[in-house]
Amino acid sequence: MARRRLVLLLLIIAAAGAAAFGIRRDAPKAYCFYGIEWTGVPYLPGTAAAIYIGNTNSCIAGYHSPPDTATSYRFCIPSWVAFTANATTLCGQPAVDHSAAISGFKRLIGLQPGDPHAKRVAQIAPYKLGEKIGRCSIQVQLDDGAKCRVEDFLPEDVAGILIAHLKSTAEAHLGHRIDNAVVTVPGHFNGNQRQEVSSGSTEYGGFRYVSVVDEQVAAAAAHGLHEDRGDGKVILVFHLGGRTAHATKFVIRDGTPSLIALRHDPFLGGDDFTARVVDHMADLIKDKHGGRDVRADAAALRRLTAECERAKKALSYQQETVVTMRLDDDDDLFSEPLTRSKLEELIGDLVGRAVDLVESCDASGGDVVGVDEILLVGGSTRIPMVRDLVKDYFHGKEASNEKGVEPDEAVIRGALLLSHPHQARYLDPCYDYWHSR
Fold it and tell me: Coiled-coil annotation: which residues (predicted)?
């Protein structure tokens, strides 16, 4: 018995420490033989939820319970968490404008304070970073009126709080408890980071079983590429979200994804594009409205940022829009046209940096030459300039466009699909062991 426990412990340690791109279906035979519960799959409809924690938005989705198992639900909220003075938390939209709000925590999960990425976050984040149990933490100032104190929260704990909120929303919709989860993570997350996400999901969310799936694999599943029609094909996923950019090249054989190359920039995304528009409009306001600097007015800057974000998105579908903003209570109105060509001028170098990830990833494929399927994921890939540059790099090859799969919905839709019991083979590391006997 002692030897058996030692073997299992070593297997668990090895699984946690290794980088683990792809859905694990290669659990050691000893692990499967002893019948230890690893994932709990297949998950019955209504008992599992798919969860995507993004830097901008986070979503939960799942299938309804019998007899309505053919339909599904989905809820999405901004990826913001705020801590109030009385120790309660706010999640989603209510947290966005709170003085103790946190966003962008996904980039810090599992990092140590000395990590270069953590140091970069410390330079740009509106909150301070600290250290807790040897890992990077987020410092939150809490003021209950009597005294002010600073508490440290691990980023994975913040993610867990957001997951718990999403879970409670889904449970309220279903009218019953959800025990299992399929949680997505970026492909560059190592084994320890994946374990942190899993632990946060069980500790805060209260899930019994958690399966961790790469965002890129989930996106491929949303396009049906995890099954026969994608078998053996080389897939390149270009994910350009609100704050991060990834290019991942991999192949799926018999349902098992194998990584070929991966490039990512954790500090490049749609928010940077919006910031360029904000700076441009702020300069125009200063020139046309008596030297007024909206950058010095937090409330005005938030309004301008929201309007520039709207305008940026509109230019993905039209050639021109108008940025309009009321500057104060005296009916002082700022209104300025913005064309698609001007937007491209403002963000061209940033888009070039993002597409460079695609080129570098594709060139790092070793013996694997060429790409069979191109998937564009993330809301920022709707920008025509982004799509055109990717198409030009691949000599006119179009990105796959599965009907009904929007770029910013691909990951959660794929994770939802993988949570279905008919897809159990893609989540169960012991599937091959039990079904080849």
Answer: none
Residue 39 has what pLDDT?
A: 56
- Residue 275: inside a domain: yes
Report residue 233: phi and psi, to 5°. -85, 145
pLDDT tens digits, one per residue of 72-111:
999 999 999 998 877 689 999 999 988 788 999 999 999 9
pLDDT value at 128 more than 90 = yes
Helix H or strand E encompassing 157 = helix 155-174
Q: What is the arithmetic mean of pLDDT over 397-420?
A: 90
**Backbone phi, then psi, for 133, in 5-degree steps?**
45, 40
Q: Is residue 290 part of a domain?
A: yes
CB burial of residue 74 (10 Å; 0-12, 13-18, 19+): middle
Report yes or no on 69 lying in a domain: no
**DSSP secondary structure letters along 312-381:** HHHTTT-SEEEEEEE-STT--EEEEEEEHHHHHHHHHHHHHHHHHHHHHHHHT-TT----SEEEEESGGG
Rounded to whole angstroms, the Cα distance separating 162 from 270 reads 22
> In terms of DSSP bridges, do strands 135-143 and 148-153 run parallel, antiparallel, or are they unpaired?
antiparallel
Give the range of the structural domain holding residue 334, as residue numbers without chain letter: 270-345
Contact 33, 23 (CB under 8 A): no
Q: Report the CATH number that the domain containing residue 286 is assigned in CATH.
A: 3.90.640.10
Question: Strand 209-214 vs strand 180-185: parallel, antiparallel, or unpaired?
Answer: parallel
CA distance 367 to 82: 48
How far is CA 352 from each of CA 19, 159, 235, 345, 387, rounded to the nearest angstrom? 29, 31, 21, 11, 11
Residue 301 lies in a domain: yes
The pLDDT of residue 437:
47
3-state secondary structure of 143: strand
**pLDDT bracket for residue 410 (50, 70, 90):** very high
Structural domain total, the chain:
1
Q: What is the mean pLDDT of residues 102-131?
A: 93
* DSSP-derived secondary structure letter, 87: S
